[in-house]
Amino acid sequence: MSEVSVTKNAGGPAPAADRLVVLDNVNKHFGALHVLQDIDLTINRGEVVVVIGPSGSGKSTLCRTINRLETIDSGSITIDGKPLPQEGRELARLRADVGMVFQSFNLFAHKTVLENVMLGQTKVRRTDKAAAANKARALLDRVGVGTQADKYPAQLSGGQQQRVAIARALAMDPKVMLFDEPTSALDPEMINEVLDVMQQLARDGMTMIVVTHEMGFARSAANRVVFMADGRIVEEAEPNQFFNNPRSERARDFLSKILHH
Ligand SMILES: Nc1ncnc2c1ncn2[C@@H]1O[C@H](COP(=O)(O)OP(=O)(O)OP(=O)(O)O)[C@@H](O)[C@H]1O
Ligand SMILES: [Mg+2]
């Protein structure tokens, strides 16, 4: 983990150039529900941030605002110094800069694994087909499913499909990767093969925001844990500090529930 630790921001705020994702006083409502409340969150380049919290606390909504799958009511979100674009090609490019991996794999069922990983490259990045295919094969090898390239998603296990989804996001050369409970739909024996790929990505220096209940991953890969409850960030700390010595009652209560079953 030393490669990750060196990117830790020991003293004070990072220089502006190192701030990759910045949420400043973000608020969002779903009708009467104030789902995100005064969210201030900065993710530095190369940092791995794990977001945890009870069901309904707003973790998925937070992720979805960062690539503008959800709009916000007030505040601002910038990626690499630029505010999120409203629509059109700029928005498509932003979505490519922000790789997203969901609980459900969302692969195109009628396209092969290889085509799934090529598609964004040819459509959004305008990469030519041969180059896109080469890159897709290299990425599929990297996540350990190179031999599955010509199959259709339904012919793969859940763990393999999720690794294809990761390869597909990586094919766009994203600046940051968002993971929203990427292993919670998987059978237990497939969880580690996906977490291993994510660990490797973290070690390679990818900037990552990861919503997960996998506390082992949080402990070993995260630079910082963000604990949310009721639409607020209640606590932020390094994993050791957070797990061994949570400051808030809410976090202590949450940890006692998830760590004791
Ligand atoms: N599109 C929507 N319309 C209305 N309410 C929504 C919508 N999406 C989410 N919510 C509500 O917002 C709150 C936060 O939801 P969100 O999915 O962000 O929570 P979460 O922390 O990801 O929960 P979980 O751990 O169960 O995934 C919940 O009360 C949810 O019911
Ligand atoms: Mg969620």
TrEMBL record:
Keyword Glycoprotein: no
Record's GO cellular component terms: plasma membrane
GO molecular function: ATP binding; ATP hydrolysis activity; ATPase-coupled polar amino acid-transporter activity
Compartments reported by the entry: Cell membrane
Domain of life of the native organism: Bacteria
Catalytic activity from the UniProt record: a polar amino acid(out) + ATP + H2O = a polar amino acid(in) + ADP + phosphate + H(+)
Record-linked CDD domains: ABC_HisP_GlnQ (cd03262)
InterPro entries per the UniProt record, alphabetical: AAA+_ATPase, ABC_ATPase_HisP-typ, ABC_transporter-like_ATP-bd, ABC_transporter-like_CS, MetN_ABC_transporter-like, P-loop_NTPase
Protein name as catalogued: ABC-type polar-amino-acid transporter
Annotated source species: Streptomyces sioyaensis
